[in-house]
User: Fold this.
Amino acid sequence: MASTETFRIPKHRRHVSVARRRLREALADWDVAGELTDTVTLLASELVTNAVLHCRVSCAQVRVTLTLDGAELLLEVTDPDRDRLPQPHRPTLGREGGRGLALVEALADTWGCRQGPYTKCVWARFTLAEAKRAHVPVGS
Assistant:
């Protein structure tokens, strides 16, 4: 049975840290630790920051969902600006931003985005290591 943590944050930079904290707590509750926790938290920070900075819908909220299903962990970040899909590009030296999706591509097992009727969702999938699978609580 899958375990899911879903929450919403206001579309403001100061709430990105709230998303990181909530995800770390969920991962700790599921006994997911170490490098995977750091990676998921880093990529969540990047995806939430992108949603906060690039969503053109005023007074919007960003929905963050983390699902643990067996050996798979799925991070989803959803915002109501369905037509502005993420565009990976090569970061240039001296440019402050532009590395978030490159990090997601490098560190997640797979990633992508999908459009809903009124939203877009950017997702990243991770596979837990064999040794970690044995420690995942069943039915939590």
Remarks:
- The chain has one domain: 3-133.
- The beta strands are 3-10, 61-69, 72-79, 110-115, 120-127.
